[in-house]
Design brief:
It is a single chain. By secondary structure, this protein is α/β, with parallel strands linked by helices. Helix content is 48%, strand content 9%. The protein is built from 15 helices and 7 strands. It has a 5-stranded parallel beta sheet, with helices on both faces. Strands 6-7 form a two-stranded parallel sheet. The longest helix is centred in the C-terminal third of the chain and has 19 residues.
């Protein structure tokens, strides 16, 4: 009997870090009876199964003309890898599954019907925290230039967890949905990796190599600098997001994390306390239904309530002239390296 654990995300709730941890512990997982397949992964390190998330519908072959990915096999190749493995438990991980509608989820289930049991694992976090992380990711990776207030409606639409989970429950059944509260894990001083292993009923944590967090959100100052770059380089000059990322944003992000520039971020928030409280109230009814249906908690809120203490709302003038000089130095230095 083969059991599949399908980890579907969410985006900005530790998914990249978890996939990296699983990929770096493939042999250890196998010694515990779990296969983390290489089939369906991309890039040389084979971290997550993004090509499976893109090939759930005919044709089964991934788009080879997409230069962002180097796929390693299809669903049929996955079934072959599983059949040739000694493991009877399979882990598939990709946040790309999260955005599936009911039709796509139904097609995915047809693929997974080859296995005896399928469990859906999804991690969630309080909406205002995730909204800020999603916004930072969109500035960094999608080339948007709007302020967070201008994108708030779009960001909110991605955070109604009851609506998001409903088609997964309908297709796979409530009993097969494993909902994990990321905020509670952090509150209990437990980390994502240990929690995931406990979900798999693996108790020998000491066997596993703990890896560094991946895809960490940059600070407010870095995000504001990147927003300006998107506004000038992409919106006004017409260069591509890839060009902007390579020549300008990546060097600044690298300097932020390694050279420690544009710091002092702990005192800033992208959202005001009033907006955060408004979001808490807006999602209160939906969160209550999630808590009751998926966690069996009748009188306990889904997330810890947000703090009422006012944090400083970040403004572009909070970036000092010295910090702008550092940024210009990094950009000019990187342009010289690329032109050599």
């Amino acid at each position: 009997m083969v059991t599949v654990y399908l980890h579907i995300g969410l985006t900005k709730v530790g998914s990249t870090s978890l996939s990296y941890f699983l990929s770096q512990n493939r042999d250890t997982l196998l010694s515990h009876g779990y296969l983390y397949p290489r089939t369906g992964t991309t890039w040389s390190k084979g971290r997550n199964h993004i090509s499976l998330a893109h090939t759930h519908v005919v044709p089964d072959k991934f788009q080879e003309n997409n230069s962002n990915y180097r796929p390693q096999g299809t669903w049929e190749d996955l079934f072959e890898e599983v059949n040739n493995s000694i493991a009877d438990k399979i882990i598939i991980s990709c946040e790309g599954f999260t955005g599936f509608n009911e039709s796509k989820i139904s097609q995915l289930k047809l693929k997974l019907n080859k296995f005896n049991i399928v469990k859906i694992i999804v991690y969630i976090r309080r909406q205002d925290i995730r909204i800020q992380s999603l916004y930072k990711q969109q500035i960094r990776g999608h080339g948007i230039s709007e302020k967070i207030e201008e994108r708030l409606d779009i960001l909110k639409s991605q955070n109604d967890y009851y609506r998001l989970l409903k088609p997964w429950k309908k297709v796979f059944g409530l009993e097969n949905i494993i909902l994990k509260n990321f905020d509670r894990i952090t509150e209990d001083k437990d980390n994502l990796y240990y929690d995931f292993l406990k979900t798999l009923k693996i108790e020998r944590f000491e066997d596993f190599k703990i890896t560094q967090n991946q895809n960490i959100s940059p600070g407010c100052k870095v995000v504001e600098v990147m927003r300006y770059i998107n506004k000038i380089i992409i919106d006004k000059l017409g260069y591509s997001q890839e060009y902007s990322l390579k020549k300008y944003k990546r060097p600044i992000i690298k300097a932020h994390f390694h050279q420690k520039i544009l710091l002092d971020d702990d005192k800033y928030s992208l959202l005001s306390t009033s907006v955060i409280q408004s979001l808490w109230q807006e999602f209160e009814a939906s969160n209550k239904k999630v808590s009751q249906e998926y966690l069996g908690l009748d009188n306990e809120p889904l997330f810890p309530s947000p703090s009422t203490s006012e944090r400083k709302i970040f403004k572009s003038e909070d970036i000092t002239s010295y910090e702008w000089q550092q940024i210009m130095h990094i950009i000019l230095e990187n342009i010289e390296k690329i032109s050599e």
